[in-house]
Amino acid sequence: MKIAGMNITYRYFPFEHFLDSMTRLEVDQIELWAGEPHFYVYRGGLNRLRRIKQELKARGMRVVCYTPEQCVYPYNIASSDPQLRQKSIDYFIENLYAALELNTDMMLVTSGIGDFHLSPEESWKYASDSIYQLSRVAQQEGVTLALEPLTRFESNLITDVQGVKRMMDEVGSSALQGMIDTVAMQLAGERPEDYFSHLPGLCHFHLIDGDGTSDAHLALDDGQLNWREYLTSLESCGYEGTCTLEIMGFNYYQSPHDTVMHSIRKIRELGILSS
Description:
Order of helices and strands: EHEHEHEHEHEHHEHEHH
Radius of gyration: 18 Å
Distance between the termini: 9 Å
Number of strands: 8
CATH superfamily: Divalent-metal-dependent TIM barrel enzymes
Shape: globular
């Protein structure tokens, strides 16, 4: 297993500041949050992508997962509005090709949010159809879609491993694989072993602490989660992918380097993950 940094923690600093921070922390793998002001697929275009690619190459870094912003911007693949839903599908396809331009073969997706005036089953059908369309493109292009369950504070669709499994079974594409977010996992009352027992494999992992009651994504040891046990479980289950620190919160945004540095030190003390 390896550690990856994520630029979402550095969202109020220039992207280059994030890369310099990763260099100082001796982290050569990143999960690219594709959101403003660092990179938005409809602003900057190919020129911006190529600049990012050059900056990564100069530092000996690689993108292990490409994560389009999908909880803030006006995109929702589960929307009952057909125009908005198609616009959202198109947005993800554009991001998929941006991921390929950055030489990564993994893009994170979620189920979106079902409209509250509809039944969850009706909204599920919209999400399922959208993910099916995305999976067809991903499979054709050799990209893995990492399906992340959200918390119950973020979505009314996929919030646990059973939801991930159901969607994977319905879509039936080898391009669609499951991943873990430790906050969503804990709120669903689950453990890493549940993912390995229900899914054929695990393609990605978000490692963060949490308060046990909300969707807060905290720095390690700032919350209540037994994240050390999670890492031990991953190792015993044979996980060989990347663990991304997806730390979010206003206080963290003000001093991202120190925040990430302290969490990485705690991980390295365990001797399980490498940089």
